[in-house]
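1st attempt posting a full record on here, be nice pls
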Amino acid sequence: GETYPCNLVCDRIHLENAESLGAYESDFYAKEPAVTRNSYGAGTVYYVGTQLSKEGKSYLLHTVCEQAGVCGVTGEDTSLEIVCRHNQNQTIYFIMNFREKAQLVPKQFYGYTDLLTQKPVPENAMLEQYGVYIVVA
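the predicted structure (as tokens):
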């Protein structure tokens, strides 16, 4: 039920085993698939045959992640890149800022010791551009 603009490339897709998740609405390829999904074995592949708008890509990625059970490592909205690694005894978080401006560190990391500085992450900590915290939870 959602509509998003696309441009630049509009592949013409012939469905065999895949299903159409979205179709073009105009021009000679109207009603032809623009985004498809195909399941094979335990895997699923998506094909985007056009350049979706930012909003269209966001909607598609949110939907795909939701269906795959993928979720963020923090429940807070953040522009930081946060990666976690698990072993049998602990979880290690790599918190990185690739933005030009300083970014607020999510509250869940306050008080954990940064392995790089051996100091606790303070409340309302701001991570500068290219700054990194590595914490163990």
